[in-house]
Write a structure and sequence with these properties.
Radius of gyration: 35 Å
Strand content: 5-15%
Number of strands: 9
CATH topology of the largest domain: ABC transporter transmembrane region fold
Structural class: alpha/beta
CATH architecture of the largest domain: Up-down Bundle
Number of domains: 2
Oligomer: single chain
Shape: elongated
Largest sheet: 5 strands, parallel
Order of helices and strands: HHHHHHHHHHHHHEEEHEEHEHHHHEHEE
CATH class of the largest domain: Mainly Alpha
């Protein structure tokens, strides 16, 4: 397990991990010192005359020049308070080093997981469940840090402290050491044997239940209309309740297991005290001292053993996070990112040269395209039609750089479209899909998608809204372009959402506009209005290149050229 965790921790954090480990050792040493300084106080409490019987106390008494035993006792207590206070402050400073390391690592892992999923591209996103990816990014990294790394650090610290205390007991009073081992070791061993196999299973099952519950909630809100019309909510609610009950049941078992360490250690301590009484009786200075030493040791050993058991429980329960992070392969390099402001403008033409394409996960190895060639010239209005499943959207995704051709290539003015030029090309194009992506923010922020609120050029937003025939509607709203749209544009009509997509493409001053069946879900009147807006936009700017996918012929009337994409002999039909 340690090797797997080491693989997850990035090289930039490994030196800090060494510093955190040193801090763990030092904190354990400080805890031991804090416990050791209580021994003189114990001796004074049992019998002040023990000052002279104890070699170390007697030397301190004489060396410091005390003549009154009570004054010496007060001085010893004051010194112990000072040492413990200093120990606590220093321990807190060391703890901050550990804390900063763990939460900086959480921030790094969560961000890395987020960017890794993003950089795997559209194909990975489409083949994954968004609710699962969201949970992994938001929850798994934090659970790994808080539920695996922090318990490991706690176990390491407590184990070091346990060894120190036990070694000191063995030197000071072997009987107390043997008795402490007899109390706590069997309790820990019995707990380990009792729960070791259950915890990993409980953690895996709860993770699966959380994923299923997240999917259920996400699908309910995303598909509200269909679920309501088909009276499917009861089925969704049943799934939700089922997974919720599963999570609660597993948590109850986990919490029960988490309560066992304290019970075991307390029972062991009572049995140890009883053994002292049975074996040594209740009278005599030896019994008093042994009782006192065992009480002081137990004061720290009990929570130490309990923390070790609880930490081990947490690690076992959260082991699934290691698998999730390793499966994400966070060691891979992030996709090369070009300067965000740079562009690859279209000055002459886009050439599609003998491309073939098939999906990696398609076991039939069916090619969507075979030796497809196509030229799109600057300022051209190109229409693409074809039956459902013919590959029109796939062709768009290739032209946009989301998919890489299996063979062949695409060039923009002779520059190949590949991983090194993808970002620059995407900065130069606009994309309007059938379901325009709308964020839960204002009109201005949706049109200037990706720009910080303070960096939005409001004049350009207004011009884009005006060109998309949306300015009059926005200006009629109380807050104008600062009016919140609502999640997924729930306060807008379908046509208004499409116009926001057009305005977004115009705001970024794109050289090429791609419309992927942008009007297919609209009524005829709205479709005609948007098509008229696109046509007028093209007439005003003849250098603007427009590529349109549509089912209906009427949606392509304003195009200069129309090509047909089919399932068979695609290259011969263009």
């Amino acid at each position: 397990m340690n090797q797997r965790i080491f693989r997850i921790i990035p090289p930039s954090f490994r030196r800090r991990a060494v510093r955190a480990t040193v801090c763990i050792f030092l904190r354990a040493l400080l805890n031991f010192v804090g416990l050791a300084v209580l021994i003189p106080v114990l001796v004074l409490i049992v019998d002040a005359r023990n000052i002279h019987a104890n070699t170390y106390l007697n030397r301190a008494y004489e060396w410091l020049g005390f003549t009154d035993e009570r004054a010496f006792a007060v001085a010893v207590c004051a010194a112990v308070v000072g040492i413990v206070a200093a120990k606590c402050l220093l321990s807190l400073a060391l703890f901050k080093v550990e804390r900063n390391f763990t939460f900086d690592l959480y921030r790094h892992l969560s961000r890395k997981l987020y960017t890794t999923y993003h950089d795997r591209g559209l194909s990975f996103i489409k083949n994954s469940n968004s609710a699962v990816l969201t949970r992994n990014v938001n929850v798994v990294s934090l659970t790994f840090v808080a539920g695996v790394l922090k318990p490991m650090a706690a176990i390491a610290s407590e184990c070091i402290l346990f060894v120190m205390i036990f070694a000191a007991l063995a030197l000071y009073n072997p009987t107390a050491a043997v008795l402490a081992a007899a109390i706590f070791v069997p309790a820990a061993a019995f707990y380990y044997l009792l729960v070791r196999k259950r915890l990993v299973r409980y953690g895996d099952e709860e993770n699966r239940a959380h994923r299923a519950k997240a999917r259920c909630v996400s699908e309910t809100f995303r598909g509200y209309s269909d679920i309501e019309i088909n009276d499917a909510f009861d089925r969704m609610l049943h799934t939700f309740d089922e997974q919720q009950q599963r999570i609660i049941s597993l948590r109850k078992r986990s919490d029960t297991i988490g309560a066992l360490p304290q019970m075991f250690t307390e029972l062991g301590l009572v049995l140890g005290m009883a053994a002292i009484v049975v074996c040594l009786g209740t009278d005599g200075r030896r019994t008093e001292i042994l009782f006192g030493i065992l009480a002081v040791a137990a004061l720290r050993l009990m929570p130490s053993i309990r923390n070790i058991m609880s930490g081990w429980t947490a690690i076992k329960y959260n082991l699934y996070t290691i698998d999730v992070l390793l499966e994400a392969d966070l060691d891979t390099e992030e996709r090369m990112r070009a300067d965000d402001s740079s562009r690859l403008p279209l000055k002459d033409c886009i050439r599609v040269e003998n491309i073939s394409f098939r999906f990696d996960d398609d076991r039939s190895e069916r090619e969507i395209f075979s030796n497809l060639s196509l030229t799109i010239r600057r300022g051209e209005r190109l229409g693409i039609r074809g039956t459902s499943g013919a590959g029109k959207t796939t062709l768009f995704n290739i032209l946009l750089g989301f998919y890489a051709p299996t063979s062949g290539r695409i060039t923009i003015d002779g520059v190949p479209l590949d991983a090194t030029t993808r970002r620059r090309w995407q900065n130069a194009v606009g994309y309007v899909s059938q379901n325009v992506f709308i964020t839960d923010s204002s009109f201005a922020q949706n049109v200037a998608l990706g720009a910080a609120p303070d960096d939005i050029d409001r004049r350009r937003v207004h011009q884009a809204l005006e060109a998309a025939d949306l300015a009059e509607f926005v200006e009629s709203l109380p807050k104008g372009m600062d009016t919140p749209i609502g999640e997924c544009g729930c306060r807008l009509s379908g046509g208004q959402r499409q116009r926001i997509g057009i305005a977004r493409a115009l705001y970024k001053q794109a050289d090429v506009l791609f419309f992927d069946e942008a009007t297919s879900s609209l009524d005829n009147r709205t479709e005609e209005s948007i098509n008229r807006s696109i046509s007028e936009l093209s007439e005003r700017n003849r250098e603007l290149t427009i590529v349109v996918i549509a089912h209906r012929e009427s949606s392509l009337d304003y195009c200069d050229r129309i090509i047909t994409v089919g399932n068979d002999d695609t290259d011969s039909r263009i």
